[in-house]
Amino acid sequence: MTDVLLSLTMPEDVAQEVEDLLLSRPDLVAGFTAIQVDGHGSVVRLVRADELVRGHSPRVQIQSVGDEAAMREVVSLLRSEMPQANIFYWLLPVLELGRL
Prior knowledge:
Blueprint: E1 3-11, H1 12-23, E2 33-39, H2 49-54, E3 57-67, H3 68-81, E4 88-93
């Protein structure tokens, strides 16, 4: 089986719901890391006045490493459970992982 890194970037207001969904599926996601990030660029919808002034929007990025099939199932689950959540995602192959 091939491990991949799944990265999900989303508006702050949907992050807790995504985290709860991931935590409810330990069969797919053994664990994840959530970090605060800023969304920049023409594809980022700036809504609030402070976002328009700053030119970026606060986001949460969640990353998880796991079997490719499981990570693809997570994407499908999010697509079906939260179709309007405005989550940007990508999958990358993992060359090596471990604990030091």
